[in-house]
Amino acid sequence: MKQSTIQKLKAYGFENKYYEEQGLSFYHIKITSLPALNTLVNEFYDIEEDDEIDLSDAQFVMEIQTNGLTPQWVFTGSLEKHDFLNDEEEFLKFVDEIMEKITKKEISKMKKYAVAVGNYENIEIKIVEAEDELRAIIYAMDDHELLDNMQYTDVEEAKQYYFDGDMLVSAPVDITK
Length: 177
Known about the structure:
31% of the residues lie in helices and 28% in strands. The chain is an alpha+beta fold. It has a five-stranded antiparallel beta sheet with strand order 1-2-3-4-5, with helices on one face. Strands 6, 7, 8 and 9 form a four-stranded antiparallel beta sheet that branches.
């Protein structure tokens, strides 16, 4: 791959990802923010105004092997759709177009948070992208239906809300670089 392509992908937030089962390395970016996904869904799907699309488990991934082969994009979750691009040049043009559509208005609002979640026996740290701490808790708890009808107004209320349901959640820690 051209060094200029690698630098541009890294500037967009692409990271190196190794797939053990395939023995392949990719430059990879996963987009999970709901505003960005909404923009991309409208770009790739014919959506009627009254259609409801469930984005709770959706992701948009763009990746290319570190040797420049297999450039591709994919929607995962309930939106299953993908395509391969012809080469490194076409991939970079596609990435530029996508990032132009979403970066300025959606991605720039997103922060990366670490949130501890679990029950009294098992706690894990989840890394999520969200617009704010309350949404970070919702994403970490996989409670997307609460986005439209939040049951709390601050982090302490959110922690209590889940505690009352026998779940533990920490205050989100901003780990945005």
